[in-house]
Structure formats: C-alpha cells, structure tokens
C-alpha cells in the first residue's frame, strides 16, 4: 500500500487524486510542510512525499509520472509522440501555472515579511490570466489531451483551484466548465473527502 505524506490542501492532493483515479489504496499522513513529520520523509520538509515499500519519492509531478507509468493509466506510453506532447503540456503547466502561483505564494506568506514584494503579484496574476486563455484555446475534447483523462488534467485543475484561493483572475467560461466537470469526478470527490476525515 502507498503512503502519501502531505496536507490535503497542498500539492499532495494531486497525488491523492491520481491514486483515487488509479483505484489504488493508500494511507494519508496529513503532514504540514516543513513539519517534523514531513522531514521524516523529505529532509527539506517539502511535501508531498510518497512511500512505496522502502522507496520514498518526492515532488508531486515526479510522483504522478511514476504512478501513471507504473500502473499504465492516465498517461500516454513512454517513447511515443503522444507522450512527448503530454510531457510538453505537463512542463508548460509547471512553468506557466504552478511556478506563477508558487511565486505569488512566496510573496504572500512563505518568505519572511521583509523579503516579500507584494507588488510582483499583479504581474503574476496577469501572466496566469494569459496562460489560462492559452490553455482554454487548446482545449479540444473532454480532456486536455483529447478523449482520455491524463496527468495534465489533474495538474491543471489543481492549479486552477489554487488560483481561486489565491484571488487570481477567474478562468474563462470554457475552461471553467471543464473544471466543473473535473471536480465532479468520483475520484476527485473521494480524494477531497480525505480532508474532512483528517
């Protein structure tokens, strides 16, 4: 059985949702970032971490890629053009969505107060809005890669949810409708229910 280490309202949710989509059982340790519990699994204290037997893996996207490859679901096969296109979108989402949101978080509550530059958040919000418009434009089908849900769908929705909590601009109606449908997935709801249980 897998063990996911990290608070539900963090990037750990991506891993939990993926495990639910994969139909894999897991234990959840809702450790906060930089807590003693988190440092037991990752010396930096960053979350999430995934325990698979004696192995401990870190970084949400690396964990998701590992799980998708291991179980042969939510991903195109490695070594195919479809996988290269999927990876390109995954890396784009990390650069254009995740990194922008993380930069805003650092200037909101992560950095010591004297190192924060609140004015930078306006440009980050504009950058996110531009990227969200691009993502909406490329949406062609029920999922980002076409007819089947893949890792980028989970990553993108998590970032859109994060953007709402961070008071970033709302995504357009097309992307918003896609996001609503994703939130209705039983696996998403099951992963979210872990928060109430914790």
TrEMBL record:
InterPro entries: Glutathione-S-Trfase_C-like, Glutathione-S-Trfase_C_sf, Glutathione_S-Trfase, Glutathione_S-Trfase_N, GST_C, Thioredoxin-like_sf. Gene3D superfamilies: 1.20.1050.10, Glutaredoxin. It holds the Pfam family GST_N_3. SUPFAM superfamilies: GST C-terminal domain-like, Thioredoxin-like. It comes from the Bacteria. Residues 79-198 form the GST C-terminal domain. Residues 1-75 form the GST N-terminal domain. This is Glutathione S-transferase family protein.
């Amino acid at each position: 059985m897998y063990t996911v280490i990290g608070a539900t309202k963090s990037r750990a949710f991506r891993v939990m949702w993926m495990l639910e989509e994969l139909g894999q059982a897991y234990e959840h340790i809702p450790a906060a970032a930089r807590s003693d519990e988190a440092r037991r699994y990752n010396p930096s204290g960053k979350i999430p971490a995934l325990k698979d037997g004696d192995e401990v893996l870190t970084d949400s996207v690396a964990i998701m890629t590992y799980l998708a490859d291991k179980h042969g679901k939510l991903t195109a096969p490695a070594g195919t053009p479809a996988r290269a296109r999927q990876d390109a979108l995954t890396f784009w989402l990390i650069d254009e969505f995740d990194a922008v949101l993380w930069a805003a978080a650092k200037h909101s509550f992560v950095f010591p107060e004297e190192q924060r530059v609140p004015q930078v958040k306006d440009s980050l919000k504009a950058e996110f809005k531009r990227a969200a418009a691009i993502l909406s434009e490329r949406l062609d089908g029920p999922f980002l890669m076409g007819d089947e849900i893949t890792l980028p769908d989970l990553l993108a929705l998590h970032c859109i949810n994060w953007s709402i909590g961070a008071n970033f601009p709302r995504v357009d109606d097309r992307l918003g409708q896609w996001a609503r449908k994703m939130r209705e997935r039983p696996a998403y709801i099951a992963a979210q229910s872990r928060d109430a249980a914790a």
